[in-house]
Amino acid sequence: MADMMKVVLSTQAAAAHWGEGALLSFNDDQVLIHLDLARQEQDALRAIQRAGRRLESTGIKRVKLAGEAWDLERRYAFAQGFYAAKGVRELDLGEQSVSDARELDALIKASRWVREVTNGCPEEIYPMSLAESALLLIRGLAGDEVTARITAGEALREAGHIGIWSVGRGSEREPVLLELDYNPTGDRNAPVVAALVGKGITFDSGGYSMKSSDNMLPMKSDMGGAAMVTGALALAISRGLKHRVKLILCCAENLVSGHAFKLGDILTYKNGISVEIQNTDAEGRLVLADGLMAASDSGAAYILDAATLTGAAKTALGRDYNAVFALDETEQQRALAAARAEHEKAWALPLEPWHVGQLTSAFADLGNVASAEGTAGATTAAAFLSRFVRDEGKGWVHLDLAAAYQKSGNDLWATGAKGHGLRTIARWLQEVTI
């Protein structure tokens, strides 16, 4: 087998024959990444990730990071770029301190799990398999500190989880609610400090409000929120998380059949709120409502939900930033600070109590979409969710994961899941206190 290609960081410009401002140059079994000394470190990380993406795209599959200039963040940036959904790659991260190696191993394992499960074929990643995979991941890290309850199929309706049951009832594969309890305290009466809620739509056809083929093709990724919060909890546990956390995954396939939910249906939730279905392709908020009520019932002081929820968030922010919503400004700022600390991109979008008034229905308390001209789709989706958390949204933050998936690859990311948001949620989780 051929030796590994060594990858070295350099602050010297590439020789002229490699082109003006060249990012890469090659010398026998060595490739140099040329960094501009004038760059801020954040720009340097992007350049390193770009180099990793470019090397992978050229067909180089076995590399070793060499030299003194690599630190933890630079190694991780390269690893993020040196990835693709198919094929085998080998990456030797080079000599590191014990603490850096431990953190980098946790980062890469969590992010790779998120990317691989999100990229998985929807025939293999379905509601029950997603719940079981998440449980297996967390139990593998925390063992007896984890207990879980899975509610599936008709048992969801009987338990009052009307959103998950309704969205998933059109599929032959039953919808699932996973309620996982991570309790490292050893005290069964310990307070639940935080709850994570994830949208786990393992395939989204749009239902009777059907998507076009082009828009439906990447919809195996609509469980990206469930994958993201699971990976974030895994990362936080690997970092030494010591407080009790609930993980709640709302899993279903949104398909068309003779038993699928329909436009004009009215769902009445456990909290008494009735919702008219005005668009079956706005299903994520319907399943998250059940998860948010379960999170509120757990007594968690802090609640974070994550979802690939709206195209409007991508329209507003593109594929680089996740959108952050909250009625609690302190929580919104804490989530944004967590993103900055972890070198991830997030941006605050507006949410006010009066936005709920834009979700009107002549037949129910709420419509599941806003139909008036000029309404902000990502904001009204967040407003819908706000009706299902307690204390008027105190301690709650919602992430619309615009940056979680790349429909087409670019110079930073391979086609598919990115894991962008994983570190933000893990940091947010580590820093909550009661």
- Global morphology: globular
Secondary structure category: alpha/beta
Q: Sheet bearing the most strands, described?
A: 8 strands, mixed
Helix content: 25-40%
Count of distinct strands? 18
Write up what this structure looks like.
A hairpin with a 5-residue loop joins strand 10 and strand 11. Helix 4 packs parallel to helix 8 (224-238), helix 6 (162-168) packs antiparallel against helix 9 (284-297) and helix 9 (284-297) runs parallel beside helix 12 (377-386). The model has no long low-confidence stretch (mean pLDDT 96). The protein is globular. 35% of the residues lie in helices and 20% in strands. An 8-stranded mixed sheet has the order 6-7-9-8-12-16-13-14, with helices on both faces. Strands 2-3-1-4-5 form a 5-stranded mixed sheet, with helices on one face. A 3-stranded mixed sheet has the order 10-11-15, covered by helices on one side. The chain is an alpha/beta fold.
Sum up the structure in keywords.
434 residues; alpha/beta; eight-stranded mixed β-sheet; five-stranded mixed β-sheet; globular
Nutshell version of this structure?
With 434 residues, the chain is an alpha/beta fold. Helix content is 35%, strand content 20%.
Present the secondary structure layout.
Elements (H helix, E strand, L loop, with lengths): L4 E6 L13 E4 L2 E5 L6 H17 L4 E5 L5 H10 L8 E3 L5 H22 L7 H16 L3 E7 L1 H6 L2 H7 L7 E7 L11 E11 L8 H4 L7 H15 L6 E10 L11 E3 L5 E3 L7 H14 L4 E6 L3 H7 L4 E4 L3 H13 L4 E3 L17 E2 L9 H10 L9 E5 L4 E2 L9 E2 L4 H10 L3
Parallel strand pairs: 1-3, 1-4, 4-5, 8-9, 8-12, 11-15, 12-16, 13-14
Antiparallel strand pairs: 2-3, 6-7, 7-9, 10-11, 13-16, 17-18
Helix pairs in contact: 1-2, 2-3, 3-8, 4-8, 6-9, 8-13, 9-12, 11-13
